[in-house]
Amino acid sequence: MSFVMTKTYIADYNNPQTEAYQTLAASIVSWSTPIYQAKYGSRFFRVVVKSLRAVARYRADNTEAEIDVEFDQSVPDTVPDTTEVLEQLKEQPSPANLSVDTSTISVLHEPQMIANVPFTITNESSAITLAAVNSTAYRDTTSKIKSEL
């Protein structure tokens, strides 16, 4: 997700190690985190500021933030729709130190769901057979796992 703030871009925002970058990133996280915690509770995991960059608007370069909003993916059906996540941020006023232009809030990429499938082999002879990646048993098992995912 990204959005533009009417905050003049400075060179220190190029480096995540600078105090200016970290201060602005902390402000973004402290503004957005309670919004998602209130709406999604334990399904919400965290907000991460991925980058700050200059965007030309009007007379000076403003600052655009790219963030990731992360959710608990252990139950994929409970991860909210990206449009809903976007609207939550648009509906909340930003603090004066951020001055987010809500018309610029957009989704940059759809979330990728990663399935966490536990797999245990209880038969020792099966484990030995599956250790050989060129064996028929290995290929059959791999095929079954892929079809289940």
TrEMBL record:
This is SEA domain-containing protein. It comes from Alosa alosa (allis shad). Transmembrane segments: none annotated. InterPro entries: SEA_dom, SEA_dom_sf. Residues 1-112 form the SEA domain. Gene3D superfamilies: SEA domain.
